[in-house]
Amino acid sequence: MDWVLLIGRILFAVNFIFAGLGFHLQQRAMATEYARSQGAPLPELTVPGTGVVIAVAGALVIIGFWVDLAALALAACVLAFAYWMHAFWKLDDPMMRTNQMAHFFKNVQIAGGALILFFLFYEFGDAIDLTVGDPSLFND
What we know:
Blueprint: H1 2-25, H2 28-37, H3 43-63, H4 67-85, H5 94-124
């Protein structure tokens, strides 16, 4: 069953690597302008900063090193993204409101998945195979 968890980790985390490197960093100017238009704080710093965090955390989840820490970082980021980037409650247009509401709750669901990963690796990290190094930072 460790293979199932490994496949799940890969499927969960690969998008964070692509989004962090491809959007937050390679398309930083566009991402920064979009974040600014949504009222995100300090987009010149937070866009590249979150790009690095989500890319590194995604890679850590995949390789199985400090997955608990990585999962907490991802949960924090996607909850911040949900609040700042998908603030559906600020919109009057029903179509835009519905679209942003779907993105908001998608991010909330992803945060839930990250918290489940945190729990699994915090509680059972030593028993989980197919990892590189120490799978849990907090539970030594």
